[in-house]
Amino acid sequence: MPTASDPPRSLRLPSARTAPAEAARVREPGTRPPVGGLAHRPASAPAGRPRPLWPRLLPVLVLLAALTRAPSFLRPLWNPDEGFLATQARMLADGGTLYDTVVDRKPPLVPWLYQGAFAVFGDASLWPVKAAAVAAVAATAALLASLARRRWGERAAWAAGVLFVLASVGLNPEDAQAANFEVFMLPFTAAALWCADRRHWTAAGLAVAGAFLVKQTGGATLLPVLFLLRRSAPPGDPRRAALLRLGAGCVLPVAVVAAACGWSRFLFWTVTGSGAYASFTGSELHVLGRGLGNTAIAAAGFAGLLVPLAAALRRRPPARRRVLTADLWIWLAAAAVAVVSGFHFFGHYYLQLLPPLALLGAGALHLLGGGWTRRAALCAVLSCALFLGWSTAAGSGELDHARKVADAARRHAGPQEKVLLWGMHPEGYWLADRRPASRYLTAGLLTNFSGGRDGPRVGQRYGVEGGWHTFRAELSEDPPKVIVDDSRGKPYEPSRMPTLRYLLAAYYERAERVDGAVVYVLRPERGEKREQGEHGEREGREERAERGAAGAR
Description:
Layout: H1 19-23, H2 54-68, H3 80-93, H4 109-121, H5 127-152, H6 154-167, H7 173-176, H8 181-197, H9 201-214, H10 222-232, H11 237-261, H12 263-272, H13 275-278, H14 284-301, H15 303-315, H16 320-323, H17 326-340, H18 354-368, H19 370-393, H20 397-412, E1 418-422, H21 427-432, E2 435-436, H22 444-447, H23 467-477, E3 482-485, H24 498-507, E4 508-514, E5 517-522, H25 524-552
Parallel strand pairs: 1-2, 1-3
Antiparallel strand pairs: 3-5, 4-5
């Protein structure tokens, strides 16, 4: 029998002992939580009330993101993508135009991010973008934790956020620790689902557009967003209005960016100009080996999420269809298609799988119970420690080679003279602090080798459309003082490229060999002829100007 001091049963709040059962309730995705749930709570919460989640969880996620990405600060850069972006940022700062005198097959947000970081912090170090990558990982984890909490409670929020961060470094160090396109795409993909889950369709469209403008495959996130819209928006006018808001959010930002960059150039470099790059004809075994190897590495790195998910699928608990919902599987399938597209299977592509896997793994742990949470956490910690050890102990052979090539370029070319590094290491330009002689920063753009192909479809005929015509014009108008042949026996070596072979034979002489790379220097007579030509052209312009002025008088 209740005493006089006991509150009425209708006003009692759940005790700490009943809180897990309350949190275990499953909410269907796309539905709204009850309105007015806080209306009957007393002004002063009892002492047993659980502490708010975010003041505890957010610092943990930020700290884990910083710790797991600490190895990224141990070296200047991790892979050629970072070198490419750093060199692009310098070219843009020097007055270059994106998709004209500064080109790549990627959308513009990450090059602009690098450019902005260099403008604020200087271009001598990549630490600002590495710090931004830490923030991107933490933000993605927080969004996933919020999604999991809304559906399955606080324990699932901890699982989704923490396991995502631990798995985010479960790749080859060059892929996991680099401040590349995928790591900056992840917050947008998670934000798209976060907004769609709350029926914020315009914001969901903006997030999908942001993911696409970081990397084209980010647009695959539109599929689960559309599924949630179809499930939650009533048929008829409400659904059409939701589709209109979603479409506007997706299309308008992309249209504005395309107009700013030039429609034709933007479409060519981000959509239509990569046909040969996406083909794997003639390199089937090479592509298959890369795919199997990187898939195995990713499976080991994501084990903390895959193991409980496999256990839940094997046990088939009754509530699995209400927890592991269709929208999460569609999200995972869309991400898998994005990873496979182009048949390149680079390790960093697999990062796009992580957000849906984190939610599916958290949902599986919600079904399996507390014992499995400890096992998954142990598995994730051990896997993360293994990959962090790999990152810390990883050799720096390619970085050391790029530094030697950069030193050679700096020795033979002055600060205002241009160089051409014929290879796949554009970071050499950034390390040497010398201006590129061409808008094509790697030999891959001109030969198709950048797609990871092993030879059959590599050559001048497979480069970007019109690339060699532009390349010849660049080198004829302003010949680089130094050309470094860094092919080292690869299928794009100059002996197989008629245009480059002729230029080297006609105007350059061999200066030295550095770590397998051959350094060529412009012959003095070529430089003198160029100076004489410029002097004569200048005198001709002055003479024509004087005649024009005399005629006007």
